[in-house]
Each structure stands twice: as C-alpha cells, then as structure tokens.
Records
---
Amino acid sequence: MTLSFRHFLLALAVVAIWGSNFVVIRWGLNAFPPLLFAALRFTLATVPAIFLLPRPKVGWGNLAAYGALVGVGQFSLLYLAMGSRISPGLASLVIQTQVFFTLLLAMRTSGERVQPFQWLALLMAACGIGVIASHTDGSTTVLGLAMVLLAALCWASGNVVGKRAVGVNMLAYVVWSSAVAAPVLLALSFAIEGPARIGEAFSHATLGAWGAVVWQAGANTLFGYGAWSWLLSRHPAATVVPMALLVPVFGMSCSALLLGEGLPLWKLAAAALVISGLAINLLWPRLRAAWRLRSA
C-alpha cells in the first residue's frame, strides 16, 4: 500500500518541519536559555489546546511518565546540548538513534529478539556515531554528543510508555502530557538558570524569538504530531514511518543553508552510516516480504 499524492505531501511537510525545526531551535536559543525555552514550548503546546481536547483515557501515571521522559528528559537535554555543545545538523542526525534505543528497550521489556539485519543496522549507526565522536571540535563536543544520545534514550523510553496508551487520540495525549512537562521545566529553569536570566531573556526577546516558541509548539508539536498520528491511523506504519528517514536530511541541509554549518566529508559519511542503518532497520522487513511474495 502506498501513500496518495496528497498524503505523501502531508507526510513530507511533517518531516520537513521536524527537520528544519533544529534551525528554529538554534534561533530560539539565541534569545532564551534552554530550560526556559523548553518550558515555553510545552506551555504553549498545552494552552489553549488542553481546553479543547478531552483528557485521553489513560492513567495519570502514564501521562506523567510520558511527559517526564519526552518533555523534560528529551527536550531539556537536547536544548542544553544545542545551546553550545553540538551543531543543529548533527543533533538532527544523532537524535534519530532513538529508533535503535526503542528496539533495544522493546527487546528487554517484551522479550523480542533482535534479528540479524537489526544488528547490522545497529552496527552501521554505531559506526556513524563513532565518526562524529572522533571529529568533535568547537561546534560539537563529546559532552554534547552524549547529551543528545541520552535525549534519544529518553525519547525511546517515552515511546515504550506511549505504546501502552492504546486507542487514544495521540494529539490529546501529547497536549495533556505537555501539561505535566511545562511546570517541571519552568521550576528547573528558575532553579538552574535563575530569575535574573529569565527576566533578562523576556525583556530582550524579539518578535522572531517568540516566533520560534510559537513554531515549536504549533507547527512542530501540534501540527506535526497531529498530522503524523492522522496518517498512521489511515495507513500501515510500514508505509508512513520510513518517511522519517528524511528528518536528518532536512535537518542537515537546512543547517547548512540557513546557519552556514559546514558539511565536510566526515560529516556526510557519518550521516550516510546512520541513515543507512535506519533504512535497513525500517525497510528490510518490507523488502524481504515483497521478495518472498514475488518468489512464491
């Protein structure tokens, strides 16, 4: 089953927003400290949408766990890393390792066995991360790389929690879990970044900086997750999910075009290894099934 042209364009719009969003994050971090920026994102993702969408029929524990892992864990670490420790293009690539963390967590929690093609995919992605680690410089540090990998682990853990919310409106799920993340992030911002830095950020924030916040909440969170969930509800996951392979492509190309991030050969090689690993993991079962069907 393939996507219709209109649904393909919708999926392409989502991955383009998710990929280019790393540039928007970089712009936002020029005005707001990382934890405050994350708090503003999830506050705006909560209000006013929470008054329009009924609470999904899952327990508060599930919502709190998802909000803590994805909202607080993933995005606080990602924003802190992108503040000065990793370039936006590489961040968009490394965060996709959440696919492999999700695979390993599923193996641990449900007893799933990792197949040979998945070990190959993991090895290729690990080699790509190794290439990045061996070329850290002023724009990307080992600490920044480790923080984004930990953010990917938080995202993967959130995926495991989210899978338990069966049959719910995922947009409402994201909005209500954002209501858990926002106050925690704001408290962390006050405790770590301090009232003085927060006040200075608010007093100097430009219209473009607030636009970055609105984009984070509206385009990236509400539209992105809403449209993606809508597509997944109408098509098999194997048809929709491979489109996500384009996220780091958009991320790295937009960072190069809009921020002047260099694309040396080692960075392209790392991207090729990670994206190839992702592609093998996502596409190999589908290709194998098609081959068996043709051979039958």
---
Amino acid sequence: MNSEPDFGFVLPHMVYWGWLAIMPIIFIFLTRREEKRNPQTPTPDEELAANLLAEEDPALHVENGFTRIIDAISKWSGIFVSFWTVNAVCAYFYEVVMRYIFNQPTIWVHESCFLLFGMQYLLAGAYTLLTGGHVRVDVMYIKLPPRGRVGMDIFTSLFFFIFTIALLGTSWGFFVDSYNMNETTVETWGIEYWPIKGMMVLGAVLLLLAGISKLVKDMILFHQMCREGRS
C-alpha cells in the first residue's frame, strides 16, 4: 500500500510564469473591446472622488510629453498586475474543491498566490503614486495653501528618492545573488525565487520613474503658480 500523500495535479513552474505573463494581456484586450461596445460615463460618485483628488493634489493633472510617457507606463503596469487577482480567486477555489471534496490537497496553490500578491504589491507602487493612492501624513499638509502644498511635495521628494534608490540597489543585490545560486523556495513546490526578486527590481524602477514624473509635474505647477501669483 502506498503511504505517500496524493497531491494530484502540480502546476509546472513554466506554466505559472507564462500564464502570469499572457493572462493580463488577454483580459486587457477583452476589457477594452467590451468598453468600445458599451462605453460608460463616470458616475456622480466617481466624478466627486476625482474632483476631491484633484483638489488635494492638483499636480496629478499637469503633464507634458515626458510625463505622459512615464504615466502611461505606470498606468498600464498597474492595470496589468491588477488582473492577477483573478488567478488567486480561481486557484483558491480549486484548492478548496480538491482538498475537501477529493481529499487531494495541493502543494502549490498557497505558495503561488502569496508570491503573486507580493509581486503585485511591488509592481503596483507606480500606479498608486500616479493616482495619488499612497498614504500621506497630512497634519500640516492640509493647512498649507495650494502653492505651499506643491512646494512641500517638491521638498519631500528628496526623501522619496533616497528610499527608492536604496530599494533599487538592495533589490538588485538580492536578485543577482538569487539568480547566481538558482535559488528556489523552501516549500515542496520549489519554484524559482529569482524572478520574484527580479520583480522587486522592476517595481523599484517603475516607482522611481513615477516619482520623477511626479516631481516634474510639481515643478511645472509650482512655476505656473508663481508666475500667476497664486498662493
């Protein structure tokens, strides 16, 4: 009698990486096609949220050719990884069915999902900065006039770039070490770890680019305010 546990289907590593690469492209294509067929206008709540965000951070709506390119990269990278969440829903549903109905628990679902969420968190930072979604400590910020807020954003960008450059350098070291040793996870699935750490590098690069775009837009807006005499 075989005493080894039956784990059933085990997702191949290359299928995992390949699916994460092509699945969002498929969903983006289908979503855009549906939007063309059934265009939707913003709801009053969405318009109110956009107006409040524009009032809080007016630099979000300033742009030039340089920032448009970077903002497009930030936008589509965020949209791309957002579709990964669908994979987690489907994978955990599969795990529940296999575990409790067929008594064949998986060795890869949980690990694949928490790695997916980790990569998603890293890669979505640029999109979050683009849309003004990062948490800010606004005890003093909200008391400043509009030009003072923009000036504060320019000043505090120094600390942002210190953090981002440190993140990029540290992540690059982690990635190189992981790639050189062909590091894998310690769980039974044993998937390669260096692509995950490579996503740390990519996420830091995207965040750095988004920060540069934000700084350029803040400087443009601050110059406009000074020229027009706005406080």
---
Amino acid sequence: MPRPVISHPRRTSIEIHDHLRWLILDGVLPPGTELKQAELARAFDVSRTPLREAFRMLQEEGLITADINHRGRVTGLDVADLDCLYAARISLEAMGVRVTAGHLTRQEVQEASAHLHDMDRAEAGADVAAWHEAHRAFHRVLVSRCTPTVLRTITSYSERSERYLRALQDRHPGVFPQRRQEHYDLFAAVMAGVPERAAGLIAGHLARTARRVIGDLAPGREAPAVGQATVMVCGEDLGMTPVENWTLAIKGVHT
C-alpha cells in the first residue's frame, strides 16, 4: 500500500485520513477491504493514535465502518447514498453554473479548455487516473463563482461520487465518449452566459450518470431524489422524459 507523506507531526491524523480517503475514492481500496489499525500503523510508521482519529473521520464520511477492535472495512456502493449524493450535486452545481455563466475570465476559459483537451488525451490513452483528475478540475472551473464554503461542499460531494463514476466507467467504457460532447456543450453554455441552459445541461449530465449506475447496482430501482432535484432545476423529472426530447426542448428555448 502506498505510504502517506506526513508534512508535520501535528498533521499526521489529517494527512493519514486524506491518504486513506483517496485510496478508497480511487478504488485502490475497493469496497469490503478490511483495514486494521495495527497493520496500518506499522505500514505507515506511525502510532495508532492518529489512525484512530483518521478512522473516526472516515466513518463520519460513510467511507468505512469501524468497530471497537480497531478494525475498519471499506463500505460498499449504496444506492440510496448515490441517489441523495447526486441529487445534492445537481442542486448545488446547477446553482454554481448559473452564477458562473458569463463570468469566466480569459484565464479560466483557457484553463477549462485545457482540462477538456487533457480529458480527451487521457481517454485516448486509456489513462483513467489522468481523466478523473482533468474531469475534477474542469467541473471546478464551471462553478468557480461560488463562495469558498460552497465550493468546498461541491468538491466534497464530487469526490465522494467518484467511486460510483469509476464503477460506471469499468462497466460501460463506451459511455465516456458519449459524455464528451456533454462536457463541450456545458462549457459552451457557461462561456456564452446562458445560465438556464447551463443549469439544465449539468442537471441532465449528472442525472444520467446517477441513473446508469443505479441501474447497474440495483436493476429496476428508482432514483427519487435525483428526480426531485431535476424537477427543481428544470421543472421536470428528466427520467420521465426521453433525453433526446428534453435536449431538443432546452435547445429550442435558447436558439
């Protein structure tokens, strides 16, 4: 297991938490992996005290379960959690692109464009880690006019949803070329300063991902929270309307 880099003794528990968190989110520690504080303490060359605190923080985030014997286990992918997580992302990121639309600086436009090209290169080279890094950076630019507090919440939800996104990528590699055009359309709407279109596009983009993963994890299961979030943003449950018709309706309003 990769060892964390501890920058200062006072930050040991925080940096161990961050390290384990990314190992979980990146799929290095898949669902069901058992984590033992004693073994990790030896592997990371630290005492068990900071590991206990790191375990506590991971448990609060719902990423592990832990017991009194100082053992933890990486939690599985949960459909109800996914539904609410993506509903929260739809609500917050739709607001984020609304307030950002038309207000990107020239530098931010260049950065977002570079992130899109990085995603294309990573996809062509089958570099999953690089794709996710560029994808995170691209979405951050699109909501950059939110306050730091809201940005931290959006980033946290986005990072936590990556486990589900990776599951979709593993099962349906052909989905990502389809999502490529959605990213370019979303970027164009934010650059052009069309907040309603940008909000509708991000809502549909996230809702389709959530429903696809839910369909894999629990065939036939609904996504009520995602549906309610898209109703708030777009006035309708995107799952109840064919995607093609909804996209045409949105384009018709703004062309």
